[in-house]
Amino acid sequence: RNPEGDETCGGPLFEINQHEIDLIRCLMGNVTSVAAMMGNFVSQDDFDYEDFAQVLMKFENGGNGGLLAGHSALLGRYDGRVYASKGTLYFGGAANEIEYKVAGKDAVKLPYSEITGYENGVHREVREWVECCLNDTEPPIPGEEGMRNVEIAEAARLSAREGRVVELPL
Known about the structure:
Blueprint: H1 12-15, H2 18-28, E1 31-39, E2 52-59, E3 64-70, E4 79-84, E5 87-92, E6 97-102, E7 108-111, H3 121-135, H4 143-162, E8 166-167
Antiparallel strand pairs: 1-2, 1-8, 2-3, 4-5, 5-6, 6-7
Helix pairs in contact: 2-4
């Protein structure tokens, strides 16, 4: 624990869930405001940061999104859902598959192993980083995109601390 009481890592939104924030932005676009609640429910003696975060986001296109994040669950799971006006998509969970339904069509279940060109995200991230270093090339996703994700995490932290909706940009 830092003697001044400041966080030493930032918590799950900074350490773990930057990728999920990025995915949400890729699907929905720019975030205009954030409202969040956070807490340290399980690991108060071990960590000086939140072990749970619930983040709601408003997007430029008028859509809404949410993220439940953290490491307070004793039974962990990674999954996501997208609800749209003409379809629904579920991914992850114990099944490691994508399930989707487009209005007027049958639902489809597709295991990750059957997705052409699928590559584990962490493996791809490391591979692309190594390739950029070896070839002295720019990364496929510029650092500014990462900064936008960090801004959302910062806005969530501010929202949780002050109990208010935070407008972006900060």
